[in-house]
Write a structure and sequence with these properties.
By secondary structure, this protein is mainly α. It has one domain: SLC41 divalent cation transporters, integral membrane domain (Tetracycline Repressor, domain 2, Orthogonal Bundle). Helix content is about 85%, strand content about 0%. It has 15 helices and no strands. Helix 3 (about 95-120) packs parallel to helix 8. The longest helix has about 50 residues, at about 1-50.
Length: about 400
């Protein structure tokens, strides 16, 4: 037993060093991306809440959808690279085809999210909201698809485990692009409705051209039926997060800082969950996990847990600075409650991610296709509940 304990200790030490050397930089980069998007959300939160409230309902779903679709693509590429099924080059034809498939998978859930928002009574400027989310989905999906491919393939070529860096960067780039693109389209519609419509038509034409160029077949789209059903169901489930965000938008805005760090909180929880799910999936496929209680898997979680106080502190410090720079306002002194609770919420999500990935694999369901989208979505729900609770504690509501 002492020998086993020493081996586990050495393994944990090695993974802690890897977590700080490889994963933490990608998590901190992801924080910068998420806080960039959060700056737009925080600054225009009141305008969105009053003029285009439907965007608040669909926002978590759109953010989660992009993380789900392209996070699972990164995990799939990682597994394919290790198995030799994908050449380590962004020029591989499978890359373009996979990107187009993921773009197609994204459009129907986005429309359904909009429809749910309308059916739940948020009809103000509904058509404008639809145009914004469709155009944003096409453009962001195209950019994010190539970003995902580049991060996964380049990290693999440099001897870095893609599972350790791809998921955080992909999810964060989605956040980095999502909120600013929505805000920019809002400003474009306000200033030039004709210009926005022309831009919308050009974007659709680009989408049709790329689809034809990739030569995607219906059979190939059908092969992703499981992913499509999963992301669509999860997108609809994300309306829980959207409804919470819309319902408690006043309290969140009153807390000041939570409007700014909301995207970063959701993305970081999703990042931790996705990293654990991706690592667990790869180990399961390679036969390295034989039972639920696996020291190798739990040392991954413990190593990542040691980074959570750093990520939480950076998030708060940058968030406080952004609030001051963009609004000139201060934040409530009770903001410290976020620093205390954030690491344990992240730990809960990581343990949940490992358990879900393991159970799905044992039931012959590929975690790459299901676990990461499900975890990302659930992390958004848990994260939104966490933000609402923190807002209530901070403003005393």
């Amino acid at each position: 037993m002492p020998v086993i304990g020493r081996e586990v200790g050495r393994e944990l030490g090695k993974k802690v060093r890897e977590a700080y050397r490889v994963t933490l930089p990608s998590l901190l980069t992801s924080e910068v991306f998420g806080l960039f998007g959060g700056t737009f959300l925080g600054k225009y939160f009141e305008s969105i809440r009053t003029q285009l409230p439907g965007l608040l309902v669909v926002l978590p779903g759109i953010m989660g959808l992009r993380g789900n679709v392209f996070g699972s693509m990164a995990s799939r590429f990682s597994t394919m690279l290790y198995l030799g099924e994908l050449s380590p080059s962004v020029r591989d034809r499978k890359v373009l085809k996979e990107i187009v498939l993921r773009m197609l998978l994204s459009l129907i859930p986005v429309f359904l999210l909009w429809a749910v928002g309308v059916l739940t009574g948020i009809k103000k400027n509904a058509f404008e909201v639809l145009l914004i989310v469709i155009t944003s989905t096409i453009l962001v999906s195209f950019i994010l698809g190539y970003f995902t491919s580049a991060v996964t393939i380049l990290s693999f070529r440099r001897g870095i485990d893609p599972d350790s860096v791809a998921a955080p960067l992909v999810a964060s780039m989605g956040d980095f692009l999502t909120v600013p693109s929505l805000v920019l389209f809002i400003l474009l519609i306000e200033r030039s409705p004709e210009g926005f419509r022309a831009f919308n038509y050009a974007t659709i034409a680009l989408f049709l051209f790329v689809t034809a160029l990739s030569r995607v077949r219906l059979k190939e789209l059908a092969e992703l039926k499981q992913v499509f059903v999963t992301v669509t169901a999860l997108a609809l489930l994300s309306t829980v997060s959207g409804s919470l965000l819309a319902r408690f938008s006043g309290i969140i805005q009153a807390s000041v800082i939570l409007g700014f760090i909301y995207p970063a909180i959701l993305s970081s929880f999703g990042n931790y969950g996705s990293i654990v799910a991706a690592k667990t999936s790869t180990k399961l496929h390679l036969g390295e996990i034989e039972g639920f209680i696996c020291p190798k898997a739990f040392t991954d979680i413990l190593a990542l847990f040691t980074t959570t106080p750093v990520v939480g502190a950076v998030k708060l410090l940058i968030g406080i600075a952004l609030v001051g720079l963009t609004t000139g306002m201060g934040v409530p002194g009770s903001v410290w409650v976020i620093a205390l609770t954030y690491p344990f919420m992240a730990l809960f999500i990581m343990l949940y991610s490992y358990s879900l990935s393991y159970l799905l694999f044992r039931h012959n369901i590929d975690p790459d296709s299901v676990a990461i989208p499900l975890i990302s979505n659930n992390s958004d729900i848990f994260g939104t509940l966490y933000v609402v609770l923190m807002a209530k504690l901070m403003v005393g509501a």
